[in-house]
């Protein structure tokens, strides 16, 4: 990380040195110099994160203008390292490091051919006590890309969606659904510059990209959206198909990225079952919970299962980890990840966390009790058995529907597919299955849990996610939407606090920089539940929380932490020395509830 910052300062010094000119040069620059200056300002990566004006004012009030400006800048860039959690139940940290070094050695040879001398990429074992199974793989950036720009002949170019670009900045490739526009006469094997289409203000006072998919780019100033792409070039790559193939297809690799602004090692399909890519604050959250072998743990809002599996690993897979999520497909993801990592202590259920506590004295049977019965039927029971016949009926209906679908598909072979069906299929390929389109596989439903039935509860609450990086746009979030997140999180917390037994632990975390979802919730918890108290966290590498309160001109106010409480929470600053995402952790101990 230190080496990345040194590299960044060196790049900035080189840029400032190269921009200096003598008075005579500044008075009469040549045409080639003007062309070079124009191209260097355009074909670079220097984004400005746009916020809703009211949200920007709120954050400026909370952090101060200078700090918030620094945070906004950091959010537009990925962390310059990959954080890997080693599955020590299957392998060792040393074996993983050795394998990564082999991958890097091969990649370094390729980069030497492409870029000449490249800095050595390093693999480091985490030095935080207790986290020796965490490995950091250093990346590099930002790099100056040499785009093939000549007078009256700009480089061939493609525009990708913002979501696609954010993935590419983290090391992904460019796939067909993410491509919005392309230069004319692009053939397979052409080198193209890759830029980003970011939302712009629209006529209805909202935000929109405004790019019709498939438009032709000329690279000239007369092009639509020409100026909007200044400073939004993320690298260049080689097309794997022609322009026609890109916009006729629904899937597949569109551009193989050969030169990136940020170079991070890709671990796609590498060492499956042995490693899991996870942000450092997320790993620390599982440690702060401090799960012990043999305990019963609940992970609310658990998908995709990263923290769930981290908890089970810390417990050495001895105990019971209950993971719930309201999405059928996300519960399947948890099942699949647990199976991939070889963890058997995890039980995942479909459950809306707002209904996590059993009501009306319903006859219940805990998951641990059903497991002890020893039969497959008992293991597949939901925590409340009242609606089990309904669950079986639903599953039978789903199976019948699947059979009908297969029969219908057999009947439709060779038949005409309408334009509407084609559009629906294209959306499904681009966006994935919706909430009513199960990807297959059975999941068990749960009707809730008895109060005081868990030793520890983790509430990693759904949030505005304003700490995730890289982020190229933030204008869609309003003050009202941020407040709605806060209200929703309080309702989730009301459920979580009932499920922890006296003497237990409750950990609350988010991946946002919004104090209304972080410090304000801690204030709500401490003022509402007098049996809760903040506990010290270990390990602790994050910074202190925010003290004070916020009052808006329209009378809205929220209180944050009070003096003495700031060091009992962890706030991770994206612009801080650890180069993490924005994150927040609070740990509560539960006293006698009576």
UniProtKB/TrEMBL annotation:
Annotated binding of S-adenosyl-L-methionine, by residue: 301-307, 325, 352, 460
Any Pfam family hit: PUA
Positions annotated as active site in the UniProt record: 511
Superkingdom of the source species: Eukaryota
Chain intervals for the UniProt region annotation (Disordered): 420-442
CDD domains: PUA_NSun6-like
GO biological process: RNA methylation
GO MF annotation: an example: RNA methyltransferase activity
Keyword line: Methyltransferase, RNA-binding, S-adenosyl-L-methionine, Transferase
Domain SAM-dependent MTase RsmB/NOP-type positions: 203-591
Gene3D superfamilies: PUA domain (2.30.130.10), Vaccinia Virus protein VP39 (3.40.50.150)
Family listed: Belongs to the class I-like SAM-binding methyltransferase superfamily. RsmB/NOP family.
Protein name from the UniProt record: SAM-dependent MTase RsmB/NOP-type domain-containing protein
Organism: Lactuca saligna (Willowleaf lettuce)
Lineage: Eukaryota, Viridiplantae, Streptophyta, Embryophyta, Tracheophyta
